[in-house]
Structure formats: C-alpha cells, structure tokens
Design a protein that fits this description.
It comes from Salmonella abony. One of its GO terms (cellular component) is pilus. This is Fimbrial protein. The chain has 282 residues and is mainly beta. The protein folds into two domains: 2-150, Immunoglobulin-like (Sandwich); 155-281, Immunoglobulin-like, CATH 2.60.40. The chain is built from two helices and 18 strands. The protein has helices at residues 129-133, 171-175; strands at 2-13, 21-30, 47-48, 53-61, 64-67, 72-78, 84-98, 101-102, 106-109, 112-121, 139-144, 147-150, 155-158, 182-202, 212-216, 222-227, 239-259, 275-281. The chain starts with a strand and ends with a strand.
C-alpha cells in the first residue's frame, strides 16, 4: 500500500443565511467508483479503480481524521453567515492498494473525479453525504490527472496488439455461418514460475461467459464473437494463461462475425470492433 499527499483547490459560496446558531459540515466523495469490499482491511473505505488498484481518501477537520465519504464537522457559529471564497486549498491523503501485480510491470492510474461540498445546518445533526453534496457550494475536482505505478516486470506477452482482418464479406454468407473463423495465438513467457489469468472485455464492458463474448462493431446488427474454446475459465470469468506455476504458455482466441437476429436490416460497409485483454498474475 502506498500513500500520496496533496491538496485540491476549490471555490465556495454560501447561499444560505442563518440568523441564529449554525453548524458547518464538509464532505468528499469519489465519483463513479464503487466500494471495494474484497480488501481485508477492518478500517475499510476502499474504492475500486481497476483490476489492480483501489483507492482510499482521508482528510482532517477540527483535529479529527475522516475517511471519504464520511461527513466531517468543521465549525459552529451564530449570526448571519453569507460569503464566498476562491482559490482555497484543502489537504488530502490518498492511499493506493495494489491488489494484483501486472505482467508488464506498469499499473495505470486513470483520472479520478472527486466531489466536494460545504453545508450549513441549523442544528448539530450530521447530514448525509448526498445532502452535503447537493448544496449550492458543491464543486468537483480531478484529484489525479492520471499516471502510472511501476513494479518489476517478469513476463513478455506476444503479440502486444491482436488484429483480425475478415476482408470482404457478404451478408448472406455471414447469416449462413459460411465465413471462416480467424484464430490468433496469445503467447506468454516469464522469467520465473507464475500463475497468469486474462480477462477479455468488449468495448461496452461485457466479459467472457462460457468462454465467449460478443464484440459489437461500428455497423448496426453486426457483431464479432470472440471465444477461447480450449482455455480453462475461472469462477470470475477469467481464462488461465499459465497454471501450476508455469513459465510459458498461452491461449488461442477465435473470432467469428455474426448477425444480430433482432436487427432486420444490418448495416453495410467497413466496420471495426475493439476490446481489451487484461492480464493478471497472483
């Protein structure tokens, strides 16, 4: 687990005026990240970034440490409270949890969106995070513009990119299943014994089911069925590249164009389809 310290810059504006006693609250939330309960850490607070990485955020308010998305009490006061500010800095500590080691030695950190809110109440009851972020003072900040984490690389994958060209096809041949499938071999060679797994995902995020997944193309009603018929599939829909601490292995992938029977008039012309292969090791 690693830690990164920094600050976000925010602007704020109070659109509510209290004439009596008021309480001020602040809160943060990672946008579009789901909680990661797979990490055996009793303190919790982890959010899944990708297959390899999870993130946790902590901040200090009134001498107490809070874990995102926990709402923090900031201060209390009385009388009119209406103002604004700009270019303010707030310190954050981000913790990164490395769940799996990548094969190529590089872990990508995508941009991570963070929402921030300031909220005032007329009593000391702590508001929920959604309420804090619904106020007019809510702002958003990108806390990571993206980056990489380097770890030792022990394996070589060939080829780096898989491409398949079906040439010219006619719709009737595709409909009748007369288009020959294309096969491509993905090979792995490691300098030490490893257990390697691959997740295959389409551009819309679909994963292997029964060792098959459909890749949608740029033409309506035309798909590419990608399969690994001879591979072993794990319970979490990954396929085994190296098992029993092997050093060399791989998998043969098959690609077959097919038509969606629910589309009466499939598109014609050039088409493209894309997906990703994510390779992981224990």
């Amino acid at each position: 687990m690693g830690t990164s310290n920094g600050s976000i810059v925010y602007n704020w504006k109070n659109n509510i005026t209290y004439t009596g006693t008021w309480w001020e609250w602040i809160g943060f939330r990672f946008d579009d990240l789901a909680a990661d309960t797979s990490i055996s850490d009793t303190s919790g607070g982890w959010f899944r970034v990708n297959d390899y990485l999870s993130i946790r955020g902590k901040y200090v308010a009134a001498s107490r440490t809070y874990t995102i998305p926990e709402v923090a009490f900031w201060m209390t006061g009385s009388g009119p409270n209406l103002g604004s500010g700009g270019g303010q800095y707030y310190p954050l500590t981000l913790e990164f949890y490395l769940k799996k080691l990548p094969v190529d030695g590089v872990i990508s950190i995508p941009p991570i969106q963070l929402s921030y809110g300031i909220y005032f109440t007329a009593n000391s009851t702590k508001p929920p995070i959604d309420e804090v972020l619904s106020c007019p003072t809510r702002v958003g900040a990108t806390v990571a513009a993206g980056g990489t984490i380097g770890v030792p690389s022990v394996c070589t994958i060939t080829p780096k990119d898989l491409s398949v060209d079906f040439g010219v096809m006619d719709i009737s041949s595709v409909r009748q299943g007369k288009i020959n499938k294309k096969s491509r071999k993905l090979s792995v060679s490691c300098s030490s014994p490893e257990n390697l797994y691959a997740a295959i995902r389409s551009s819309r995020g679909d994963e292997l089911t029964n060792k098959e997944v459909l890749f949608p193309t740029s033409l309506s009603g035309v798909n590419i069925r990608v399969s690994a018929p001879d591979a072993t599939q794990t319970a979490d829909n990954n396929i085994v590249l190296l098992g029993n601490n092997e050093t060399e292995g791989g998998v043969t992938l098959e690609f077959v164009p097919e038509l969606d029977s629910s589309v009466q008039s499939p598109g014609v012309g050039e088409f493209q389809a894309s997906g990703v292969i994510v390779i992981m090791r224990d």
